[in-house]
Design a protein that fits this description.
With 500 residues, the protein is of the alpha/beta class. Helices cover 38% and strands 13% of the residues. β7, α8 and β8 form a beta-alpha-beta unit. It is globular. It binds pyridoxal-5'-phosphate and zinc ion.
Length: 500
C-alpha cells in the first residue's frame, strides 16, 4: 500500500516531524540539562541521567488507538530512516530529524514461538525474540543507532566535529559502537577498551573489522568501565556506554516492538531478559511505561530480570523485601558463560531502582522481578533451545533458565505467555558450546556437561581406504569410486540405514 492510499486521518501524522522538548534529567538532584551538549552524568551532583521529554503530554492528546494505527501503517513505508527503531520516532528521539538518522538494519527482530517439545518441557508458552539478528548480532545496535543518530545530528548542526567515540565493553557494545561509528567516517572515529581475554574471538574480530582502535587491558569489564569514565571526565570524547542516556532511549524500541508484535495486548505477557550493566532492563521498563501512559497498551507486562549466580548484584539487592533496608553492594564476579552480563557493579543501578518503583507503582502490584540462575542451567537451557530450532546465545539460555526459575517460584501464572530476549547471536558465544561438548570447562564455571546434550563430529576414515582426496589432490577413476563407496557404506552403517 502506498502512503497516498492511507486513511486521511493517518496521512498528516505518518511521517514524524522534529518535535518534543528532550532534556537530560538527573536522577539525583532532579535538575534538567540542555541536550545541546553530550552529558553522561549530572554536572551538579554527578548522578546518572535519563532523557526526559518535557513535552510528553502532547503524545497523550492522540488516542492509543490512533497511535496503534500510525505504527501499523508506518510498517508499510519504505523510508530507511523509519525502517528501524525510529518507527517509534515520537517516543525514541523526537528531536532527531529523519535526515540525521543512522539506519543499518537494526530492530524489528524476529519473534519465534517455542515448539511443542520445549513448551511441554517448561510447562510455559514462550517465544524467543532474536536480538542476535541485529546488524552487529546483539541488541546493542538499538542503543547505538540512537546514540550515533544523535551525534550525527550534533555534527550536522555544527555542535560537534571530529568526534572520538569510546566505550568499555564485554564485547558487544564495542562491536556495535565500532560498526555505527564506522558508518559516520570521517566525522566520527572510535576506540574501544576490552578486558584482555574476556571477550570471545568473534567479538574481538568485530571492532577490528570495523576499523576501531582496540585496546585490551588487564582486569574485568568493571575495570575497563572505570578507565573510560576517567577518560570521559578528563578528555573530549563521546562515551558510548549505556551510561549515555541516548543508548537507553534507543533500546526502548525492544518494548515497542513486543507491543506491536502482540497487537498491543500485554495482558498475561512476561518479558524476560538477562541483566548485566542493567541498561537494557532500564530501557525495557521505560519503554513499556511510555506506551502505558499514552494508552497504546492497557496493561504493563511482567518483567523478569535474570542474573547468573556468578554476577548477581541486582538480584541480591532485591532479596531484601523491605525497600527501606535495601542497600546496594557491588559483587566480585566469577567466570560466567553469560559473559556479556558478567558485571559486578552495574552502572545503571540507580535507574533500575527508580524505574522498578515507578513500574510497580503504576501497575499497583509487583510486576518487576529479579531471579538468579546457575551456570549449569544457562548452558543446559541454551543447548536444549538450540536443539529445538532456536539460535539462542548463552544469554538467551540465561533468559530461559530464568523463566523456568520464575515458574518454580510462582512468579509465572498458568496462562502467561513469555517473550525471552536472546540478546546476541549464538555464534558469538559458540566457544562455550565447544567447551561443553569437549568437556573442557575450567572448574570455576561449575558446569558438568549433560551427556544427552553433547554433540561432536564423527570422523569417518575406514582403515582399508588407502587413498583419500585432499585439497588440490582430487582422486580419480577407481580410487575415487572406491572412496565414495566405502564412505557411504560406513555412514549408512553408523546411521543404521535400510537399503531401498
Ligand atoms: C550487554 C549485553 C547484556 C547485558 O545487558 P545490560 O544492558 O548491560 O544489562 C546481555 N547480553 C548480551 C549479549 C549483551 O551484549
Ligand atoms: Zn544532579
Amino acid at each position: 500500500m502506498k502512503p497516498k492510499d492511507f486513511p486521511e486521518e493517518i496521512k498528516p501524522v505518518i511521517i514524524p516531524r522534529q518535535a518534543g522538548g528532550l532534556v537530560y534529567r538527573c536522577l539525583g538532584c532532579g535538575f534538567e540539562h540542555d541536550i545541546k551538549k553530550l552529558l553522561y552524568i549530572c554536572p551538579n551532583c554527578g548522578q546518572l541521567l535519563l532523557l526526559y521529554d518535557q513535552d510528553f503530554d502532547r503524545l497523550k492528546k492522540i488516542a492509543g488507538e490512533k497511535w496503534r494505527q500510525i505504527f501499523d501503517y508506518r510498517k508499510m513505508l519504505t523510508i530507511p530512516a523509519l525502517k528501524g527503531i525510529y518507527r517509534y520516532h515520537e517516543f525514541i528521539g523526537p528531536v532527531i530529524p529523519l535526515d540525521a538518522v543512522v539506519y543499518l538494519g537494526e530492530g524489528h527482530t524476529p519473534v519465534i514461538e517455542a515448539n511443542a517439545f520445549l513448551q511441554d518441557r517448561t510447562g510455559i508458552r514462550f517465544y524467543f525474540k532474536n536480538d542476535g539478528q541485529n546488524p552487529s548480532a546483539s541488541f546493542k545496535d538499538r542503543g547505538m543507532a540512537s546514540a550515533l543518530s544523535y551525534i550525527h545530528f550534533l555534527i550536522q548542526k555544527g555542535h560537534a566535529s571530529d568526534v572520538l567515540a569510546i566505550c568499555a565493553s564485554t564485547g558487544d557494545t564495542s562491536a556495535s559502537a565500532a560498526l555505527y561509528a564506522s558508518y559516520l567516517q570521517t566525522d566520527v572515529k572510535s576506540a574501544v577498551i576490552l578486558p584482555h581475554r574476556k571477550v570471545t574471538p568473534q567479538q574481538l574480530s568485530q571492532p577490528l573489522g570495523s576499523g576501531a582502535t582496540v585496546f585490551e587491558i588487564p582486569g574485568v569489564f568493571d575495570d575497563c568501565m572505570k578507565v573510560v569514565e576517567a577518560l570521559s571526565e578528563q578528555y573530549n570524547v563521546a562515551l558510548l556506554n549505556s551510561k549515555n542516556a541516548w543508548r537507553i532511549l534507543g533500546q526502548e524500541s525492544y518494548s515497542y516492538e513486543i507491543a506491536q508484535n502482540f497487537e498491543y495486548d500485554m495482558e498475561n505477557k512476561v518479558v524476560v531478559l538477562p541483566v548485566g550493566n542493567a541498561g537494557n532492563v532500564t530501557a525495557v521498563m521505560s519503554g513499556f511505561i511510555k506506551f502505558y501512559e499514552t494508552g497504546i497498551i492497557n496493561t504493563l507486562p511482567k518483567i523478569i530480570g535474570v542474573q547468573s549466580k556468578h554476577a548477581n548484584p541486582v538480584y541480591r539487592y532485591y532479596l531484601e523485601p523491605d525497600a527501606g533496608k535495601r542497600k546496594f553492594l557491588p559483587v566480585t564476579v566469577r567466570p560466567s558463560v553469560a559473559q556479556a552480563a558478567m558485571i559486578g557493579n552495574p552502572v545503571s543501578m540507580p535507574r533500575v531502582i527508580h524505574l522498578t518503583d515507578l513500574y510497580n507503582g503504576m501497575a499497583e502490584i509487583q510486576k518487576v522481578f529479579f531471579v538468579e540462575v546457575s551456570e549449569q542451567a544457562i548452558m543446559d537451557w541454551e543447548l536444549l533451545a538450540n536443539k529445538n530450532g532456536h539460535i539462542a546465545c548463552t544469554h538467551g539460555g540465561e533468559s530461559l533458565a530464568g523463566l523456568v526459575t520464575a515458574k518454580d517460584q510462582g512468579i509465572i501464572d498458568k496462562d502467561d505467555i513469555a517473550i525471552l530476549n536472546s540478546t546476541a547471536h549464538s555464534l558469538k558465544f559458540s566457544g562455550f558450546q565447544d567447551m561443553y561438548f569437549e568437556k573442557s570447562f575450567p572448574p570455576e564455571f561449575e558446569i558438568s556437561p549433560d551427556p544427552n546434550l553433547i554433540n561432536s563430529p564423527v570422523l569417518i576414515h575406514p582403515k582399508d581406504l588407502e587413498k583419500v582426496p585432499a585439497p588440490g589432490k582430487p582422486l580419480k577413476g577407481n580410487d575415487f569410486e572406491k572412496f565414495v563407496k566405502r564412505m557411504s557404506e560406513e555412514i549408512a552403517k553408523y546411521l543404521n540405514l535400510e537399503e531401498k
